[in-house]
Amino acid sequence: MAELGGALLDIALFTGAFSILSCLLSVALGDARFARAARNGVWLQLGLFSAAVVCLEYLFMTCDFSVAYVAENSSRDMNAFYTIASLWGGQAGSLLFWGWILAIYAGVVAWQNRSRLPDLMPWVYLTLLGTLMFFNILVTFVADPFEHLGFTPPDGRGLNPLLQNPGMVYHPPLLYLGYVGMTVPFAFAVAALATRQIDERWITLTRRWMLFAWAALGVGILLGAHWAYVELGWGGFWAWDPVENASFMPWLLATALLHSIMIQEKKRMLRIWNVVLVSLCFIMAIFGTFLTRSGIITSVHTFTQSSIGSWFLGFLALVILSCAALIATRLEALRSRNRLESFVSRESSFMFNNWIFLAMTFTVLWGTTFPVLSEAVRGVKITVGPPFFNAVMGPIGLALLLLTGVGPLIAWRKASLGNLRRNFSFPLGLMAGVMALLWAANPWGLRHTPASLFSFGLCAFVVGAIGLEFHRGARSRSRGGEGYVRALGSLLARNQRRYGGYVVHLGIVCIMVGITGSVFQTESSATLKVGDSFRIKDYELRLDHLHVSRNDTAEILATELAVMRNGVELGTLIPEKRFYERQDQLTTEVAIYSTPKEDLYIVPASVNEDSSAVFKAYVNPLVMWLWIGGVILCLGTTIVMWPELRS
Predict the structure, then answer these.
(1) Pairing with 504, which of 90, 213, 272, 583 sits 20 to 30 Å away (CA)?
(2) Do 154 and 217 share a domain, yes or no?
């Protein structure tokens, strides 16, 4: 089966080269037969990559440890779900998985456009096949997932215990769907630039593709934050880790693009912005993959140091130079005849939105790459930590949150003073009321900083602005005889892009509430014997039991803590320490008591020889709103992407 998998990749490399040649001949000769051959080549690539993935999964499921990749990333005692997920658990398999997802995207694009866009599709195929060829070269010559060990060990090493979490099953695939999905809009942008058909057609065709990739990447990032929160035992959900940042940057750029697309569709403006943003999304997706695999940065997420980084740098250089040349030679055609009529308009708010997202992306990029740059220039690696990111990104994020509320309230073209007064009165009043209430109530016993108070106030401002938009729309429809509640549903059903977008903004507000609440974290620690207790804020924790057990993979030390608040028992939390003998690794399993107001987060730090245990406890306000925001974001994206209903 390993030989078959390797042969399939060899055939894919050979036929992929012929398919790329067909694309070039179609472009050069204008012959539709070569375009059809390229399209068939795309489907052939999908079949070959799919078969190669099936071969590798078969090797995992049958525990064929004569294959190096299988021996390194699985073992006989692993859960079946984690055995399947081992496909993307290491370097070679994850690159094959990247290529397979791209082949799926390319196959769907080819099917959707099999009888239309004859002028654009050869260039689209060329871009998709060229990118796929790069990953095929990597898994054929650099990181072969089917490489033999030369002997067969009795068992494999198994996945890193930190990866044996449900997050391993869904977090990486969602990130891949996001990363790889950005190739499709990029391919259409290249086609539009190459054929000089720089109108609104290509951007309209790719909006849903980018929206899907953006949503998959965003949900993947949030689920990764949840995974880090429950697995690593450090009390947080985001550490500005370089690989976390690598996924965040293309998401920021894609968010800017999705807003900018609306201006091009409605006002025939921001064409240069959009081709640049599409290109940057793809470039940063490749850059993020490079960061994870090159080993040039230190991260819990990265693979080992390897020579694969130079291949990615070469591919990145080729993409950047090609994009720069295409955009520079089409710059005059890209310029829009329409101009901003006023800085106080919805168009200008979208422009400011783009600049803010670019500023955020540059900040994250600079902080992520600065250690590498400092080592290259001065010979000393200077690490940039969370204080830098929080200090810079905080004010920029507040400005973005403000624009999120301002955008729906401000008129197109030019807003009048009366329009501003009428639209802003309620949201500003709500903002002031919430800030005053929080200052007076002080719900977490820690005095608000101006930044946290302003952040909560802006969240209220955005909710007020969105609520006002829904109310006005429903009131307008209800005047025609439709009930108010039914009218609210009709708004979502008849204008999904606008009102579904508002639902997405509500999800972002919830996420911002969770992020702001994290500044009020309270921490405490204690050493307990059975029967002892300690307090953190309103909670009292009593150690009732310590017991040891074993499962198929680890020795487990479980601690049972009774949790009480204000004298009322809330239940029992069972944080654990687990020792995995095969990997000689100790892990921590935290226990969390979660409510919409706050999380009680318990970490078993260590166990002493005298049968006492050291615990760390955190009270993390509003963390649940991060996950609620993710659900609302998914709902809003589904509404936006749902096929439109006709009145």
Answers:
(1) 272
(2) no
Q: What are phi and psi of 345, to 5 degrees?
A: -155, 165
82-96, 382-396, 442-456, 588-602: least confidently modelled range: 442-456
Same domain? For 294 and 427 the reply is no
N-term to C-term CA, the chain: 55
**Could you give the CA distance from residue 562 to residue 551 in angstroms, rounded to a whole number?**
24
**Rounded to 10 degrees, what is the CA torsion of 402, 406, 407, 413?**
-130
Give the pLDDT confidence score for residue 158 in this predicted structure: 86
Length, in residues, of the chain:
647
> What is the reported pLDDT for 603?
94
How far, in Å, CA of 230 to CA of 322, rounded? Answer: 43
User: In this structure, is residue 478 part of a structural domain?
Assistant: yes
CA 418 to chain CA centroid, Å, is 40
Domains held by the chain: number:
4
Asked if residue 235 and residue 101 are part of one domain, the reply reads no
Range 434-444 average pLDDT: 86
Maximum CA extent, the chain: 84
Residue 635 lies in a domain: no
Inside any domain, residue 639: no
Residue range 408-412: mean pLDDT, rounded: 74
CA distance 638 to 499: 12
Shared domain for 303 and 261, answered yes or no, is yes
DSSP letter, residue 304:
-
Q: What is the 3-state secondary structure (H, E, C) of 451-495?
A: HHHHHHHHHHHHHHHHHHHHHHHHHHHHCCCCCHHHHHHHHHHHC
Tell me the backbone φ, ψ of residue 587, rounded to 5 degrees: -125, 165
Q: Calculate helix-pair angle for 201-231, 183-195, nearest 10 degrees.
A: 160
Q: How many CB atoms are located within 10 Å of the residue 124 CB?
A: 30
- Contact yes or no for 312/375 (Cβ under 8 A): no
Let me know whether 208 and 354 are in one domain: yes
Token pair, residue 558, equals 């479980």
Ranges of H-type helices in 518-623: none
Instruction: Give per-residue pLDDT as tens, 133-177.
Output: 999 999 999 999 999 998 999 998 888 888 888 989 999 999 999
